[in-house]
Amino acid sequence: MGMHGGGWFAYVRGEDDKDKKQHVTWPLLKRVLGYARPYRGRIILLLGTILAVTGLSLLTPLIMRDLIDRTLPAGNAGRLNRLAIALVLIPIAGGAINIFQRKLNASIGEGVIYDLRLALYTHLQRLSLRFFTHTKTGELISRLNNDVIDAQRAISSTIVDIVTNLIQVTAILIVMFSLEWRLTLLGVMVLPLFIVAARRLGTKLRHIARQAMDYNAQMNAIMNETLNIGGVLLVRLFGRTATEVERFDVRAAQVRDIGITRAVTGSQFFVIIGLVGAIGTALVYWVGGHLVLNGAFTIGTIVAFASYLTQLYGALQNLTNAPVAFATSMVSFERVFEVIDLPLDIAEKPGARVLRDVRGALTFEDVTFEYRIDEEHLLRSVERHGQVDMVQAVLSGGEKTDGKTGEPVAISQAREIALEHVSFHIEPGQLVALVGPSGAGKTTLTYLIPRLYDPTEGRILLDGHDLRDVTLSSLAAQVGMVTQETHLFHDTIRTNLLYARLDATQAEIEAACRAANIHDFIAGLPDGYYTVVGERGYRLSGGEKQRLAIARVILKDPRILVLDEATSHLDSQSEALIQDALKTVMAGRTSIVIAHRLSTILAADLILVIDRGRIVEQGRHDDLIAQGGLYAGLYETQFSRERNGAPLFPAEAGEP
Ligand code: ADP
Fold it and tell me: pLDDT by residue (tens digit) across 402-412?
């Protein structure tokens, strides 16, 4: 990790930001506008409020002019009163409209983001396992969060700002020209100066802001990396507390310094902008004053003018930086779309059939499978090159590992092709045992059955139907899987069990738990079935979790059972409970078991001996022994271990 891991966030927020400017294309804009379409009614209303607010802001200077030029000289007290009231009413009305405008604005912005988020989450839920094994999900989520928030800013502030300011500038210029064109030209003369100053400082300021973001991200990355269990463990075990504090110190100091620079530059920006504005105003008063002296026009006109000029400069100041801000926010959209556009490689065919009354005959026809993944299926910036388990990295020794070089090699025989020309057939209700060395492809084979992946070549048939021709949900309902690692949601045991079947009754739940030999244990917990388990809940032992997983599968009642037998050494009592539970759950179902126990292998109707992605031998125990091949060899060397209580074909250390 170290430098490498610390860099990603900086990369995502920093490097990418650099090319943010050029990227606004018409298709992108059209797509963003597509998201705004459902809100067009509100958008029109919003435009109306913008016009109203602008119109109101144009009134005040005119009233001033009237006051100075007509009302006061004429000594018209009644008119003075009316104008004074108008001067109070205008901001009140403006304020009211403004509140309404903000509400509209927020509801459009939040609405679009809500739609976008939902589309994104739905899409992510449908992406295949391939995507997730190649992507750091934490990074993905944090990236998406930031991008979605940026996109929201684009919708709710940038766009509205630009539109408001454009309308304002146009309206003000029109009013000014119609009022006194010579003065208008004078006021507009300082504009180039103004625009140059605003651009220069704006660029500098943006640059600093981006730098600040990078520094912040780097600081956050250190926190993320070192303040989780894996990181803390690593730091402690290698006695690196001081180093880590130092590393953090450096980053935090950068954040502090850039914060100061930012504040100083920001104030320069406003001072200079203010100065240019003041010069323009002074020019108008000076030249205008002379014109008044010559009787070319009235004092009121100059006052109104100066006031318009201030408004004009303000609007222009906002506009100078708007294009860049806009482009930046558009890129956030683009990055969200990039995820939404990832192709679904496990998709349901149109018109896929619903599997009903499954008997459970399973056939692999010349199945070949590669883990390779096309670039287009990945997100470049959050891709990873293999999962680095922090704790494992610690245990495998050495310095803090770099994401690439120090990655512990978990699997012994990494190959391009995980399965090659695998063919076999299982009758309904039969038990198949998969045996073979670690890395042979057993897990991969089991993943193809619930369609976590599709074969690269060949096909898999369930009761004669190609898995790709049936609906995903009906396939999911027919295949139950018990893996070595049981994932439980942070919720009650009951809710976790109900995940298998939402409408199960308490009696059914208990029956399943009895069959899985876990009911008595659950009943003995302080809150029984309502005990909260999972990440921060009650910690279950490995054996308990596995029995819970078995209960969950019993509740689901699938025709096909895929099982990865535990390789870890459980105590013999726990072991016996699990074996007994498994016997129950396998009865009457087609079962495919990655077998590590002699009893399972002896009971199997078919043993598939897998090596380097191929089925090298298949048959029943006695036949295979008689063949005297790989199986016989494995059996010879491993059998004595089973009698000593160890599993027959243990996984090698480090196997997932
Ligand atoms: P087994 O379960 O027999 O130990 P696996 O099915 O886990 O073997 O692995 C078979 C092969 O596929 C190994 O060479 C392994 O490196 C590779 N492999 C497993 N999972 C992935 C993955 N997500 N991406 C790429 N290669 C993988």
Answer: 333 333 333 33
Give the residue, out of 130, 345, 371, 592, with the most ligand 1 atoms within 8 A of its beta carbon, to mutate for a pocket test: 371
pLDDT exceeds 80 at position 629: yes
Using DSSP bridges, classify how beta strands 457-462 and 465-466 pair: parallel, antiparallel or unpaired: antiparallel
DSSP H helical segments within 411-492, as ranges?
Answer: 442-448, 472-478
* Strand-strand pairing, 479-482 and 560-564: parallel
Nearest atom, ligand 1, residue 441 CA = 6
- φ, ψ of residue 371 to 5 degrees: the values are -85, -10
The pTM assigned to this predicted structure is 0.71
- pLDDT level of residue 568 (50, 70, 90 thresholds): low
Residue nearest to atom 27 of ligand 1 (CA): 371
590 phi and psi angles, rounded to 5 deg: -70, 125
Within 10 angstroms of residue 205's Cβ, the number of other Cβ atoms is 17
The reported pLDDT for the residue numbered 5 is 34
With cut-offs at 50, 70 and 90, classify the pLDDT of residue 149.
Answer: confident
CB neighbour list of residue 414: distance below 8 Å, 6 or more residues apart: 439
What is the pLDDT, as a whole number, of residue 457? 93
Q: 502, 499, 480, 463: which is closest to 355 by C-alpha?
A: 463
The answer on pLDDT for 389 being more than 50 is no
Nearest C-alpha neighbor of 481 from the set 559, 578, 567, 371: 559
Q: What share of the chain is helix, strand, coil (3-state, %, to 5)?
A: 65, 10, 25
At 375, the pLDDT band (50, 70, 90 cuts) reads: low
What is the CB neighbour count within 10 angstroms for residue 174?
Answer: 12
Phi, psi of 442 (to 5 degrees): -65, -50
Q: Is 186:285 a contact under the CB 8 Å cutoff? A: no
Q: Is 371 in the pocket of ligand 1 (CB under 6 A)?
A: yes
- Which protein residue has the closest C-alpha to ligand 1 atom 6? 441
Cα(115)–Cα(145) distance, integer angstroms: 14
Give ∠ CA 544-549-555 in degrees, rounded to 5.
125
Q: Determine whether the shortest distance from the Cβ of 132 to ligand 1 is under 6 A.
A: no
Task: Give the integer Cα–Cα distance in Å for 137 and 354.
Answer: 32
610 vs 321, residue with greater confidence: 610
pLDDT exceeds 80 at position 567: no
Higher pLDDT, 23 or 382: 23
